[in-house]
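Hi V.,

You were right to ask for the full record rather than a summary. Here it is.
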Amino acid sequence: YEHCSYVDETGFNELLRTCGFDPVRSRLDYQGQYLVVHARLAEPSPMPARAELPDFAPLAGHIDHWRAWATTFTESGGRAAVWAASSKAVAFLSAVPEFEPLVAVDINPAKAGRHLPGSGLGVVAPADLAPYDVDTIVVMNPIYLEEIGADLAQLGIDARLIGLGA
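Predicted structure:
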């Protein structure tokens, strides 16, 4: 099942070899969000003595950017929502406590009326967003910006969309 993790192609292929698979080919898909690996059974190989770790410094800079943005946004009286009641939203809200959106929006009707873990942020369906009068929506997956913009236009909601990856 899909879930975000921070592993690069080299590290994942080494893990597969260690577990007895032979990576045949790999590629990034879904605008670079997914690593797809085709592998076949092989003999397990020993774990390398010291595996190289990815450089997480760019991620820390990204978080610093969002924390500064959230502080300015909150101080200016902005009213925001996050789009997607997902693990990305939970992680984002945990990493950027300065950001205090009014609500999370999700198209899955089973999530409406629920709350996000950690922040306790309530979740609404897109059709129930209007009363919150948000001026900004932080979209957890920017691949959906155009689709979300069209949905909001149909609902008569005029809010600035910001993609998390942007």
